[in-house]
Recover the amino acids of this structure.
């Protein structure tokens, strides 16, 4: 079954700048390829192919009437907050359209079996995943990186492979002013 999530992808130059901002300790872990740096708006998980049309419609409706916006990376952090770090990320600001589309996605999709009812959302772009058994110092540092425009959200199918995940766009929804 396809493993799905809804995401925002920064322009390539923004992703490369964020990866370059990682300190050496974080760079020792598994860096996310620049073309896969993304902000997960909502993780759907495994979905039966017959659910795909309804999921696409939910993603489309979740973005309806929302304008494009600018997303500004603000801090380099480790996540999760309260347990051993699993990833290094660029935390972003929280513009109203971002928070609204995420809220709508939760409202429309959390009822699916197997999805989390936990609505805590820390907007971030994953930059590196911690290698098991290697020290992962915590980070919480200011980040000077350019803001970037967001004009669409994307429904992604993720295929896990030994070399890392493969992201395949299934449906793109434009944000219209």
């Amino acid at each position: 079954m396809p493993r799905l999530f809804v995401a925002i992808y920064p322009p390539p130059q923004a992703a490369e700048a964020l990866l370059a901002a990682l300190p050496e300790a974080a760079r020792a872990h598994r860096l996310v390829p620049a073309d896969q740096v993304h902000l997960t708006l909502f993780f759907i998980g495994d979905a039966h192919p017959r659910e795909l049309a309804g999921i696409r419609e939910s993603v489309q409706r979740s973005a309806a009437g929302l304008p494009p916006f600018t997303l500004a990376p603000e801090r380099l952090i480790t996540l999760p907050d309260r347990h051993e770090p699993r990833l290094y990320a660029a935390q972003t600001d929280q513009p109203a359209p971002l928070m609204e589309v995420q809220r709508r996605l939760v409202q429309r999709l959390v009822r699916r079996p197997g999805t989390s009812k936990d609505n805590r959302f820390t907007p971030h772009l994953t930059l590196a995943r911690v290698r098991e058994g290697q020290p992962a110092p915590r980070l919480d540092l200011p980040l000077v990186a350019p803001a970037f425009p967001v004009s669409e959200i994307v429904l992604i199918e993720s295929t896990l492979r030994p070399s890392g995940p493969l992201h395949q766009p299934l449906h793109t929804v434009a944000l219209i002013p």
Notes: The chain has a mean pLDDT of 91. DSSP finds four helices and eleven strands in the chain. The first strand starts at residue 3 and ends at 8. The helical segments are 12-20, 24-27, 52-63, 96-109.
